[in-house]
Structure formats: structure tokens, C-alpha cells
Amino acid sequence: MDITTKKQQLTVKQKIARNEKWTTIFLVAFFFLMPSVANAAPWDDMADTVLNLLTNGFSRTIAIIVCVGLGFAAWAGKLTWSMAGRFIGGIVFIFGAAIIVDLFIAAV
């Protein structure tokens, strides 16, 4: 049985159900692609707030306190290269994350 024969054998209810499915898909896609919805997504503000919390004053203060702690550990002879490398790597990734992501986006 070929495709045209199957289409001809659809009942009225099946045709209505198929049309409703495609109408629903179209309306949902249209809603999410509207400029007002696409530009004003509520999760954007939340994501910006989390980003500001993680990369602004509070995390900078924590990084400074940890750096002072590393200084005291080095002064006492307890600082290892692995501990210092982890701290420096963490600082680079935390505060340089936006630049790193922008570099990847620009490369694509």
C-alpha cells in the first residue's frame, strides 16, 4: 500500500487530529519566535543576576581572602605548587569565563 492510498483512507477524525497537531506546533513555534518573547525571556534576568553574583564583588572578596590564606600558607612553608595552581586556575576560570566563552563564540 503506497502513501497516497494511506492518505485517502484517513477518517475525518484522523484528519482533524492531524490538523490540530500541526496547528498546535505552529502556534507554539510562533509564540516562542516572536521578538517580544524571544528578547524578554524571564530566565535571562535570573541568569544575569547569578552571573553578577558569581563574578562581582562577593566572589572577588572571597578570592582575595583565599589569596591571603595562600600567602600565610607560603609564609609557614605549607604551600604546595598544586594548591597554588588550583587556586590560580580557579581564579582564571571564574573571572575569565566571559572572555573564554566570547572567544569560543567568535571562533564559530
How would you describe the overall organization of this protein?
It is a single chain. With 108 residues, this protein is mainly alpha-helical. It has two domains: 1-40; 41-108. Helices cover 85% and strands 0% of the residues. The chain is built from seven helices and no strands. Helix 4 (42-55) packs parallel to helix 5 and helix 5 (57-75) runs antiparallel to helix 6 (81-95). The longest helix is centred in the first third of the chain and has 22 residues, at 12-33. It is rod-shaped.
Q: Using only CA atoms, what is the Rg?
A: 28 Å
Count of separate DSSP helical elements: 7
Number of domains: 2
The proportion of strand residues reads: under 5%
Shape: rod-shaped
In this structure, how is the largest beta sheet organized?
none
Q: Kindly report the average pLDDT value.
A: 78
- The rounded distance between the terminal residues' Cα atoms is 47 Å
Q: What is the string of helix and strand elements?
A: HHHHHHH
Low-confidence segments, ≥5 residues, pLDDT <50?
none
User: What's the β-strand tally?
Assistant: 0
Structural class estimated from helices and strands:
mainly alpha
How much helix is in the residues? over 70%
